[in-house]
């Protein structure tokens, strides 16, 4: 699904200012380091920007900070995940704290989902 121009521009800007957990995970994903799969960072898809996306596996990996559990964010995330599922994309949400504590554990979690 094609993303609107505004979403594509925002994705480009977000690539330039990723959070520390996103940077750490990107270093572990880029260059086909995980099962030889190509991941994209801050990938626009429809109205959304996915933290990391693997088209071959139809997998979206989201790094969720503490704000994802506050306010209306859980409902927004649920709607987003449902929309992605309708497009045939699975969503894996990884807590930012896990990435900061042990990026290898985060990669192991991604590998497990890829095998399912």
Description of the structure:
The protein has 116 residues and is of the alpha+beta class. It has a single domain, classed as 3-Layer(aba) Sandwich (Endonuclease, Chain A). The chain has 5 helices and 4 strands, in the order ααβββαβαα. The chain has helices at residues 5-16, 20-29, 73-86, 96-101, 103-115; strands at 40-45, 48-54, 59-64, 90-95. A 4-stranded mixed β-sheet has the order 1-2-3-4, sandwiched between helices. The two termini are 24 Å apart.
Write the layout of secondary structure elements.
Layout: H1 5-16, H2 20-29, E1 40-45, E2 48-54, E3 59-64, H3 73-86, E4 90-95, H4 96-101, H5 103-115
Supply database-style keywords:
116 residues; alpha+beta; Endonuclease, Chain A; 5 helices; globular
Provide the spatial order of strands within the biggest beta sheet.
1-2-3-4
CATH classification, class level: Alpha Beta
Terminal residue distance: 24 Å
The amount of helix comes to 40-55%
Q: What is the CATH superfamily?
A: VSR Endonuclease
* Residues in β-strands, percent: 15-25%
Q: Which structural class do the helices and strands define?
A: alpha+beta
Give a quick account of the main beta sheet: strands, pairing sense, barrel closure. Answer: 4 strands, mixed
Shape category:
globular
The radius of gyration over CA amounts to 13 Å
CATH fold description: Endonuclease, Chain A
Number of strands: 4
What number of domains?
Answer: 1
Order of SSEs, N→C? HHEEEHEHH
- Number of alpha- plus pi-helical segments: 5
Poorly predicted runs of 5 or more residues: none
Question: In CATH terms, what is the architecture?
Answer: 3-Layer(aba) Sandwich
């Amino acid at each position: 699904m094609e993303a609107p121009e505004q979403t594509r521009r925002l994705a480009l800007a977000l690539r330039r200012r990723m959070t520390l957990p996103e940077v750490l995970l990107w270093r572990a994903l880029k260059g086909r380091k995980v099962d030889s799969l190509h991941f994209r960072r801050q990938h626009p898809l429809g109205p959304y920007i996915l933290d990391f996306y693997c088209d071959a596996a139809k997998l979206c990996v989201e790094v969720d900070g503490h704000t994802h559990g506050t306010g209306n964010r859980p409902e927004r995330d649920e709607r987003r995940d449902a929309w992605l599922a309708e497009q045939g994309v699975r969503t894996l949400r990884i807590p930012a704290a896990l990435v900061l504590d042990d990026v290898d554990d985060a990669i192991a979690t991604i590998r497990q989902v890829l095998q399912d």
